[in-house]
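Field reference: sequence -> structure
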Amino acid sequence: MTLAASPSSTDRVPLGIVLMVAFCAIAPLIDVAAKFASQSVTVTQVTFFRMVVQALLMAPVVAVMRQSLRLSAKSAGLLMARALMLIGSTYAFVGAVQVMPIADALAIVFVEPFILLALGFLLFGDQVGPRRILASVIGFLGALLVIQPNFAIFGAIALYPLATAGFFAVYMLLTRRITRDHPPESMQFHTAWMGMALMVPVLALGHGADLPLLQLSNPPLAVWGQLAGLGLAATVSHIAITYALRYAPSATLAPLHYLEIVNAALFGWLFFGDWPNPMSWAGIVVIVASGLYIIARERHLARAARRQAPPAVRPVR
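Structure field:
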């Protein structure tokens, strides 16, 4: 993530750090709720109601804050694409944690920064030096260490987190673009209701064609509670990280993001008795180390760019 704190909020860096830690504590609860709910309803239903709950939660927030809901054609297109990426990443990840340990699936998703580097190079011509390329390759090899034992047990589902990483990388690129024009609250609301609108035809098709994987059901009350909890955790955690990036530089917050893997492993063990095996832990360590190296390299390059930048010209009085 490369969003930077605004100059006027540089004195609120501690608050940004607190919000980032809160995100890392809350976000794994999304995975816990998804894993529970997906044992009783389809992955499609879990994904759909994640959007429903987010829309219901954000609608009154946007109303109270009196934010405009008007959209230009360009903004609507970008938000629709963002919603589609969120649907894809959610569906793939829920499909993975339905059977895989949460920490293993999340560790694979953490190749997303490496995908962002590749997309930045391919789409925007960003310069990517050999050190960061090597770190990305090593990070992907770490992901293979996590995938290998899971692939042997679960088959192609072990590749779903890679799809999540790809979808989420594009989601982040779109988020960075949309943030210039829309506050976080309305952006989250639009993404949610657009996601619902995109999924309704799919659900109708599933119902009409009698496709079990694309249908809704009426599960027990406890499962509805899990779906509501999933949407609540998703909404709160995404708002937390958005505001964290407003108050503190991404270079400060990015290393803290890896706390999410630690919490995911803890929650997976507490709720489901899942614990990554030694090969998976080795892969997790490789992924985290590669990611931290890229973060450190980004910091070094940013400092070097600032040193080389010409001094600002002061106006003559």
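Note: The chain has one domain: 10-304.
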